[in-house]
Each structure stands twice: as C-alpha cells, then as structure tokens.
Amino acid sequence: MISGRRIRLEMLILAMLATVAFCVSIRSIGLLLAACGLSLLSWYLTEGPRGRTLPRWASAVLVGLIVLNAVREWLATPDPSEAMAIIGRFATWLTVLKLFEARSVRDDLQLLALSAVLVVSGTLQSVDLLFASLLLAYGIDAIRVAMLLQLAQVEQGAIEGARRVAAAMRVESPRGLRFAPQLRRTVAGAVLGAFLLSVVVFLLFPRRLEADARRTGGFGVPVSGFSEEVDLFAGERISESRREVFSVRWLDRNGESVEFPRPMLLRGSVMEEYLTASSTWTVSGGRRRVRKVMTLPDAATTPLSQPPVEARTETYRQQVVMRSMASDAIFAAWAPIAISTPQPRHIAIDLRSLTMREVGLDRMRRIESYEVQIEPFPAADTLSPLLGRIGSFIPPLPDFPVPRVREIAEAALANADLEGVPDAAAAAATPADRWERNRRLSRALFAYLREGDYRYTTDLRDFIRIEGEDPIVSFLDRHRFGHCEYFASALTALCRSVGVDARLVTGFIAMEFEPGTRQYIVRESNAHAWVEVRTGEALWTAIDPTPAETLEAIAASQRSWFDSWRWAYDRIDLFWNSRIMSYDGVVQASLAERLGRRWADRLREAREAATRSFGEVSSRFSLGRAAWPWLLASVLGAAAAIAAAVLLLRRRRRVRALLGAAGGRPSGPLRALAESYLEAMRLWRRRGIEPQAWEPPGAFVERLPPQWAEAAAETRRIVEHYYGVRFGDRTPPEEEIRKVRESLGRLRGLLA
Amino acid sequence: MSRGRRSPRLGRPPAAAPRGDRGPRVRRRYRLRTSGLLYLAVTLLLGVAASTRPNNMLVWIFGMMLGSILMSGIVSGGMLMGLRARRLGPRTAAVGEASRFRYELWNRSRLWPAFGLVVREQEVGGREGWEQATASAPAAAVHVGPQELVHAESWFVPDRRGRFELRGVVVASTFPLGLLEKSLSIEDRSHLLVHPRRLSLRRGLLAALRGEGSGMVASSRGGVGEEFFGVREHRPGDSLRQVAWKRSAGLDRLATIERARLGPSRLVIHLNLLRPTDRLSADPAGPPPRELEETAISLASSIADAAVLEGFEVCLAVLGAAVVGEGSPEGGGGRAMRSEAAGEAAGRMAVRGGRRHLDRLQGVLAAIDLDAPRTPSPAAAAWPGGQGRSCLEVVIHPDRADRSLGGDAAWHFTAASVGTLLETASTRAAAAGPEEAMPR
Predict the structure, then answer these.
(1) Cα gap B356→B333, rounded to integer Å
(2) Which of B67, B117, B155 sits opposite A198 (nearest CB)?
C-alpha cells in the first residue's frame, strides 16, 4: 500500500516547488520565506509526534480571510495585468493552509490543482531561466505525484468501498512483482514523452513574425532592463538585477584593452517623440531612413558607411560578448563606423539616430558577439558618408507638448547665466547660432537638474500619479525624485520646450571595469537613459543628467561575492534567452526553411542514388528496356516472399501454442493435423460460430446447428483425427492426413 | 499481500480460453472525467493565451500540457491493451453474509505494466441482474506487471435471495493522470446463486423436536441393530445367538436372524408456499407478506443447515412455488433437484445427508420464484413421510399453520413465530447451564 505519509511528503515537496516558482516569478523574497517557512512548519505539526491538524472551523475562517485579502488587493490595484499575480498570491496562501489540514486523496488532488494555478500564474509573470528551471522540476514532479495519487485513490476507493459494503472487512490491493521499478520507468517514460512532445509543440506552435518578445524577451518583467520605449508609469521599481547582460572590451589602435575615466554610454535606442496620453517616449513615428548592410563572414570588418570611412588614429574597437541577453539591438557608443560579426548578419542602421539592429529572416538565433569600430569624436567628413545626404538633414524637433514644462524651463533659465546665447530668431537663421544656443541652454538646464534638490532612486512606490498631471511635471514640480528615465525625460522635455533639439536615448552604461580581464561587465541594472542634444548638423552630444556618482555608489553597494560566480549561470541564461525565449516566427520560418531544404536535398540525393544504382544494375545484367518490369517483378516477388514467410511463421507459432510445444518441434503429421484443426475452427469463426471459452472441441461440434449437419460431420472427423494423434500417441499414416485434408476442403466448400 | 506471479511461458493462464479460441469478447470504453474536462479547458485557455501573447514560456507550458494528455492516452491505452480479466468465483453466497468476488487479472503484454486498476462487475440491469441482490465494492489492483497474473477481490453482502446473472468483468483505470477513464468490458457470463439468509437457531432445537432417543432409526439395509431385518443362511462367524432355530428346523441348514442397520435420523421439511403472497393473512402491524415468505424460506434453509450439521438426512418439499433455473450452478444434480423441489412431485425427492446435498437444497430454496403463479400441490397432502421410515417432519408456513399438510406428528412453524426458534443471549445462557451463565 502506498503510505499516506509518503503521499503527504510528496505533496509538500510539490507545493513548495510551486510556491518557490511563483515567488521567483514575482521576485518576492518575503512571500517566499513566509510561505516556505509555514509549509515546513506544517510538516512538523501534522507529521510530528503529536500529529495535529487544523480544525475545520479554523480552516474555514482562514479561507475567508485569504479571500478578503485577495479582494482587498484587487480593489487597491484594479489592474488586469496584476490579476494573475493576485490570483497567484491567493493560491499560495490557500496552498499553505491546505498543508495544515487533515487531507484525503481528494484533498491532495485539490492541492495539486492549486499548485498548478500557482505555476500558471507564475508563467504569466516571468520568463526567467530560474523560473523555467523550477517549472521544469515542478512539471516532472507533478506528473509523478499525479500518478501516485491515482494509485492511492484506487487503493482508498477499494478500502472505502469495502467498508461501505461490508463493514470492517480488510482489503488488500495486490500488486505485481516489480512494482517500484516499473512505476519509476513508467514515470520516466511519461515525463520524457511529454517533454519531447512539448518540444515539438514549442517548435511548431504558430507565432507572429514580428513578435513583441524580441524587444524585451517577453512581457511582465523585462529580461534585460533595456527597453526601446520609455513608459514613465511602467512600474514601481526598475531592475536592480546583478545579472551580467554582456561584457565590453575597448581596444585602441594597437589592440590594447583600455579603461576610460568616465562611464561609457552604449546606445541602443533613440526616442524623439513623447506621447502625453500614455506618458511614453517612443521612436519617431515618421518615416525612418535605414541602410542595410550584410556583415562579411569570418568576422571581417564591414563598413557601415557608403563609401567606407577611412580609419583614423582616434578610433576604437568595441568588442561585445553577450552573456545573458537576447536582443536585436546592437549596443554601441557614438559613433559606429564599421562592424564585424562571426557569421554574416543583416544589420540595419537608422540614419537619423545611428542606432543599429539586426534584421533579416534567415537566422536561427540572436547575435551573440560583435565588434564595432567607434570614432568617439567624429569629424564632419566621417559623419557625412555615414549618414548620407538624407540622414544628416534633420528638421528641428517639435516643441515639447506639455506647457507647464516650458514654464519650469523658463524659470530655470531665468536664473542661469545666459550671456551671449543667441536668441531664437538668430538660431533659426544661422545654424552655427542654433548649435551654440542648443549647447548653452542644454548646459544651463543640465545644471538646473544637477544643482537642484532632485534625488536619484529606483524605488518609485511613493511616486504618486496625479490625475491630469504629466509625470515629468510631477517629477520636476512635486516629487523631485526618480530614476534615470525621469532625469533624462525631464532634461529632454526642458530642452525641447525652449526649442533645443534634444532626444532621449536608452541603452547601457558601462562603468564596472574588471582589471583582471580588462573588460567592462554590463549588468541588467546598468540599463540607462540619457539625453542627446544636437550640437551640429549631424552631431549630437550626449548629456547624462543622472548623478553618475549616485549610480556608482548604488552599483558598488550592490556588489557581492556571488557576482564572480554568475558566469556559468549567465551562459545558460544566454542560451535560454537567445535560443528559447526569443524563438519567434522569424526563427521558426528559418528553421522550417532549412529543414525543408535539407529534406528536399536528401530526397533528391536518394532519388539520384536510386537512379544510379538502377542504371548500374541495368547495365550489369544488360536488361535494356525491360529493366523496369524486371525490377518491379523482383520487388513484388520479394514482398510476396516476405509476406509468405511472415504468414508461415505466424501459423507455426499458433500450431506450437496449440500443441504446447514451447521449446520442441512437433512432428510433421501432428503439425499437419493441428493446422487442419485450427483452420476448421477459423472457418467456423468466420461464419460467426465459435467455441466458448470453456468448451472442448468435441462439445462444440455436438452443439452445432442442425442446418450445418454436414459441415459438423466433417469437423467431427477432423477433430477426432486430431485428438487421436494428439492424445493417442500414434503416428498417422499418410492416408489419414490426406483424408483429413480432404475433409477440410469439403468443410471449406460447405462453409464458404 | 497478494503478489503477482509469472504466467506460463506460452502466455496463457492455466484456466484460460481453450486452444484455438479467440477468448472472450472485449469492449473498450472511454469516459472523460470532470478533472479531464477541466484540464482540457485550462489547456485550451493556455493555448489561446499563448497564441495571443508573445510569451514562449506559455507556449512551452501549453506544449507540456498537450504532451501530458497524449502521454496519458498512450500509457493508459498501452497498459489496457494486453489486459484480460476473469471471475474466479464465487458461484454461491448467502443473504447477509459477506462474500468476495475474486478476479484474475492477466497482463499479456510483454512491455507495458498496468497500474491503478479497478475491477467491478458489469451492470446487467433488469430483474435478473446481480445489482438486484447486492452492492459490490470495487476490487483494486495497484499494479500488474508484464506477463503477470494478479488476483484481486471485491466484497459484497447480498440482501436478496435468488439466482442472478453476471454478465462480465469491467476493468477500468484512470492512470496515469486521472483525465480519462478507460475501461475494458470483458464478457464472462455466469450466475450467482444467493442462498437464503441463515438464521441462528437455538442449540438443541432439532433434538427437542425429535424427542427421546438417539434419533437413530432402522435403515433398509442389514447390519448391527435391534430391529428385525430378515432371515438368511448361516455363515461361518455368525453368532449362535442369532440362529433362528425355528426357521432352521424347517430347513436342512442353519438360518440366521439378520438385524436392520441403524441409519441417521431423517428430517422432512415442507415449505408451504401454496398460497400466493397477496392472499397471505399477515398482521398489518407486522412485516409484509413477502417478508414473511422470505423468512419462511430462511427458516427452512436454516433448519436444513442445522440438521445436516447434526447428521440428519434431509428432504425438502417446496409446495406451490416454482423454482427457476438450475438449483445448483453445477448442473447435473441440480436438474434432478429442480424436478424434486418443484412441489408437484414431492414424494420423489431423495432424502440424503451431507454438505453437497445441503448445497443443492439451499440452491433450490435460493431459486424459488415467489412472483411466479402458485400451483396447487395435491401430492403434498400425501407426503410419504420419509419413504416409509419414521422421520422428523417439519412444515413451515409463511403466515399461519395449515395442519392438513404433513403427518400427524409433523411440527408446524410459521414465519411469525421464528423469533422463538432463534438463539438469543438468554437461550445461550440457559443452554450453557447455571455455572456458565453466572456472571464472572
């Protein structure tokens, strides 16, 4: 019997796995500790020496409280995207409560269902590798536990049934000789089968070609912290994860790795348009001018400009190796002039922002490493071929659409030293004045933000949203705290409101230099936003209003011994993100096309090989035009021979089973008579008349319907001869066998 | 704990179908359970979610759930594919007594073990179905390995007497995930004969009915006894005391008096079912007429049972009621008993003792059809009373005693008076004697 204690232990493990997975998905350490601690306590209380369980009334009261808490949470944040998290927390507490109760197998099945709810709600919250690993472990364990519960339910059903029908009767549920190993094998087979089928479903499931997942690796919590859109009300807290996203090495002209005195800004996306309705910065909605290049194989340098820019002494090479992130964006400092990748890749360059993305449909996975040639201070003759005629012509960016920001900007500039700054009319008339004005005003506004009492924090729980008030205004006027996106948004908005061309840039800030490997480690928490101000026809100057010292202090405070051990995990994470989580319609199409091509190639090769072999055979035997009929006849003959052999073997097996001659060979006459007997029975069965399980052949013949009297007589003759030889221990003469065969022939005719 | 065993090498259990036979008819059934329906609904929702939201984790979960459904189907289908079951017994049971259906489960597959099997009787329906007699607990077999035989059993307590039809065995399993119940209905037609309820009669009841004496009576064969049997030729070794001198005087050789051999006591039970149920005069406050008839049948069965245990030879005459089917599942003797017990020819009934005879007798009682029209039984009044030899005669009536039945010395019992014949705590104490009855 499967012990109740074992089932309860299995259920505890499963419930804890689901709870941990859910807590990991919502990144809640508090809930994790509380739920797991209570779960372990439940084991001690229910299975300990006293074996106490929660009374029914207490359980009912607690369920009521849990329901009320869920309702309260929902009323506090009536956001549909939060619904699954609330359901998950609700299921967590119910699961924990259930562990304290006295449980039957039915209750355990409910617990299993609750744990499933937990992992499903977790799936809607996270796509992390850690969560996925826990999910896999849960899946395997859940299948095993479900099987055990089925067996326990069968046993319990038999016991309860016996008690109900015949009180106090002892019931045993028998089992075979090798129960445990065979159950293990069955579980393993089922898990493996389910997993393989899930892989097939995963590969074939229809997906959109332009999957949003490519940008963030999913939804909910972004994978990298980097985003191509800045939504100022996206979340209460930005990522502080220490996960390594990629590493960057800067090589000078001599190939030496160098460290810069200032943090390096690696651009990923440039946003020029602000949507007031959603408080979101987006890439300009206008028509984009892009140039597509295909990188050369074997990591050869591919120029991004047309014609290629001649390399100068002050160029650097930026080597990026992705550690965990899967993204189409190519992160590079200003200004990239050439790129190289290990395999040929399609790269699109936005000529307006000089940001790069990997494009193209024929690729199986995201880019894992690349090298970009950077000219930090590009001259006009560098930028001109890079941007082209259209790329360098950028009309002035529109004013910021929130009037209050302009008032704040004017107030800020009123106190600034703006002596000698060209006025707006002069700036509009003369480009040089325009760039000068942009430079001076942006610097003044930058100083306003830096010298004001604006505080950097990643915790925005107190950043209360004011109805009808733009979050940038709230940041500047009311709250005066926020993270880099608020600082950058504020500066961009201030600049744009006074006619300065400014745009918001997102990417990563590289500031953690490892002296040992002489490379920068870029972590998830290094995702950053800053501002670019136009200071030339095609020249943009980066300004980072976020207090860099605060960033560095936060980064330093978050460092731990574990950082240096994360590389192994991050490699798997990269595989997970670049191969699995970013598997989308594009990759699916590539895969299908490759497989299709491969199969077509193989089929073609097979056909050619067959034709060649056929030609060789034909020429060897000089078959000439008759080759095809000969070949066809040979194939048919071989097939017929195989079929005959199979039939013969089956017939022999049946005869041997009939005679009970498992190891030995029955004699020829006996075998012949047995075959006749079996054939006779088969003929009768074909007529719908067959002997019963308990019926000996003689009795069967006796009860045959009268209308078959003649056939019955023939059958009796066959049966008697067979019995005489089978049990009479005599060798029949040939004549007898012939007679039996004749009888069989007649029987066949009669029953036809 | 019952353990499986390997079946013989040729792959058939000892009592399986005869050679050349395809075996019993097997039907497969699939039933989606509520949990399976919920699982499918959740899977469907996940599929919709996965197709609308760009989350590969959802896709994978959806794939895993689909894969689990398919694996569940493959595992359960594979394990039931080679499974066969048959009922080993019992053929008889008694009302109010717990009995067990025993099943033999044989897994013919060489590869798939079978898990979580629930075995139950196939429902028959109608008046003849076994469900009319009893509710049955399911039998369970946790595991049957490849090529193994396992025995499982299910308890039942019949609450109706009669001959009931068993149609087949159903083997069902919800393994591995409980989504789908797959079942095999394996034809295995048979009958269950439920004997009447066995009442616990007072100890010494038959002795009290019999009165004085050992109860041994002279039999129709010569032997050692008191009664005169006959005279025969003197054989060497015969006692001279037994020589019939007067008879020898007329002969030219010695003659010896032969004594009759002592035989066991005989009991003839008349079960009076001449009057139809609706014409019985039952007390409105008491049990209904049909229950009175059943009690009468139970009393007859119990008296016969007690009598056989005490060494009586017993004969039963069922007067008026028809006996359906074969009294005994073994046939043969049952057919003979049916003709005897039908009531029309009561005098032809053999008087025998022994367990086997008791089984037949109870089989006859079990097979009495109280719903069939009653037939008058003229032979009942002329009951020969133990074929000319002295015997104890008991007539059992459902409602009131009819003295015209049975001999002058016959005892008449009614179903209403059955309480006086049953053993109670006080009768047990009285039988045990004053010392035994003292509280300790």
Answers:
(1) 10
(2) B67
